[in-house]
Amino acid sequence: MSARTKARKRALDILFSSDVRGDGLDVTLAAEARRAAGEPARQASWLYAREIVDGVIDHRDEIDEQITTHSRDWRLERMPAVDRALLRMAVWEIVYNDEVPTAVAIDEAVELAKELSTEESGAFVHGVLARIARSN
Description:
By secondary structure, this protein is an all-alpha fold.
């Protein structure tokens, strides 16, 4: 598993945890930063995970607007929390991170959705992200 794949899973954990617990992303990120300081072997995945979460924090309103616009009658708050977190992460990569090819961002998010969310989540996440990618 690549360092970026591990970082995406770590970022997903932070985004999901913040959402489910109702804590601010900055609070959850700070707690994870303290934990990461004691894990030098995982430093490579931590740096990109932090970049993703910082990007979601910086562009949260725009990211949520993209998701809402392209999710076809699904309100953000009705989506499973895992799907919300995955979509936020992938939208940041597609729209704001030129270093990640769009196809990679979509594929990684879809695979995580299939692994961690509902039976329909892979197709749902793919559909939303494909529409966002076409519009950008």
